[in-house]
Amino acid sequence: MSGGGKDREETLRSFDEAVNMTAGELEKWLKTEESRGAGQSDGSGESVGHASGRRIVDLLHTRKADLTDDDVAHMRKVVGYVHRHVSQRPDGDVTDTRWRHSLMNWGHDPTK
Questions:
Q1: Quick one: how many helices (H) and strands (E) in the chain?
Q2: Which residues of 40-83 form beta strands (DSSP E)?
Q3: Is 35 buried (19+), middle (13-18) or exposed (0-12) by CB count in 10 A?
Q4: Residue 86: how many CB atoms within 10 A of its CB?
Q5: Structure pTM?
């Protein structure tokens, strides 16, 4: 673990606010067809968000003291993605939309 104490703490706080699903909820969600069908593929057949979701589950299981700089950088990426996507909320009921499914891959359920 290295420096950037204040930035690191701010990132951890923002991540905790952005990711409103538990590790268990996210793991269960990532096994669904809806989860696999949302987001852009990285060429491997798995969407970027789905891969990020698996990493978020790992991050949620990691003690804060054990997070690496790379982990914190991914957390920052998650916060940015969630904030950008939440601001693009479509009109109407979002329960069964790709928009919501994509956000859920990143650990955020906008209906919570």
A1: 6, 0
A2: none
A3: buried
A4: 13
A5: 0.90
